[in-house]
TrEMBL record:
Needed cofactors: Zn(2+)
UniProt organism field: Streptomyces drozdowiczii
Subcellular location: Cell membrane
Designated name of the protein: Protease HtpX homolog
Membrane-spanning intervals of the chain: 21-38, 44-61, 154-177, 189-210
UniProt keyword Hydrolase present: yes
Protein's gene: htpX
Membrane topology field: Multi-pass membrane protein
Binding site for Zn(2+): H144, H148, E219
Main localization, broad class: membrane
């Protein structure tokens, strides 16, 4: 997909996984609407309005919600000249339009990209990352994030993750707000409200699995294509090692705040080494990523 519009190397395996994920998201909507219509036949206008609203919000506002949730603040070239300069160089190398550039005030060293399309894409680095990396390392990380934009997998991840985030919010509102306790079960609205926690939990679980279907593979693809584009796999490997090592020094509270957005980040944030998130990680292991970069470095050094 990326090869016809940029100089990032194409990856058919990534394209296949993206198409599969989007198909399953559509299927999830069809099943969700079908189940609700079967259970609540008299409330079909309400169901169509709610699911239609979710669909529109998912495709038009998911990127803004994701960026806002992670604290991204768009910055001008005057505010962040080094960050803009690095992205300008990558755009020139890749022959692709420049995304919006943002900074997130966080000591957790990381970066991420969001957006439904290249025109609406945003690349963000945290203040913790900007403080810790050398210019070549930062450029490697940003080339990785720009690869997500070029291959459009960031759009798929943004949309796929939205269902899970929304389902989690709905579940918390329904349970903490006491809607289920205060609703009557003898009318369509009451039954619909009583079903919200169950339906939201199922949607969250399925969305979780959908993002994992794509996530680990897309990270390896982004590492590989970024290393090939810049010609400096060692710089990206150095950034990976440095950022992963620094995670252990970040306060647990900050890591816990970042954990829900691991699917977007350059390196996942974990509050503890025993976290269940490591078993169901959004990313390949550090060893896998470094091994791939070492092989690329060896290939590039051959005559």
């Amino acid at each position: 997909m990326a090869g016809t519009h940029s100089r990032y190397a194409t990856d058919r395996g990534l394209t296949t996984r993206m198409v599969t994920t989007m198909f399953l998201i559509g299927l999830l909507y069809v099943v969700l609407v079908g189940v609700l219509l079967a259970v609540l036949r008299g409330a079909w206008p309400i169901i169509l309005v709610i699911t239609g609203g979710m669909f529109v919000a998912q495709f038009w506002f998911s990127d803004r919600i994701a960026a806002f949730s992670m604290g991204a603040r768009e910055v001008s070239p005057a505010e962040a000249p080094e960050l803009h300069g690095a992205i300008d160089r990558i755009c020139a190398l890749a022959d692709m339009p420049k995304p919006r550039v943002a900074i997130a005030e966080s000591d957790v060293p990381n970066a991420f990209a969001t957006g439904r399309s290249r025109k609406s894409s945003l690349v963000c680095a945290t203040t913790g990352l900007l403080r810790r990396l050398e210019p070549e390392e930062l450029e490697g990380v940003l080339a990785h994030e720009m690869s997500h934009v070029a291959h459009r997998d960031v759009a798929v991840m943004t949309i796929a993750s939205f269902l899970g985030v929304l389902a989690g919010i709905i579940t918390r509102v329904a349970l903490w707000g006491g809607f289920a306790r205060n609703s009557r079960g003898n009318d369509p609205i009451g039954v619909l409200v009583l079903l919200i926690p169950l339906v939201s939990a199922v949607v969250y679980a399925l969305s979780f699995l959908l993002t994992r279907l794509l996530s680990r593979y897309r990270e390896l693809t982004a590492d590989r294509t970024a290393a090939l584009l810049t010609g400096r796999p060692s710089a990206l490997a150095s950034a990976l090692t440095k950022v992963s090592g620094q995670m252990a020094r970040i306060p647990t509270e900050d890591l816990r705040k970042a954990e829900p957005y691991n699917a977007f980040y350059f390196v996942p944030a974990f509050a503890s080494k025993e976290s269940i998130g490591r078993l169901l990680s959004t990313h390949p292991t550090l060893e896998q990523r470094l091994d791939q970069l070492a092989r690329i470095s060896a290939d590039l050094s051959r005559p």
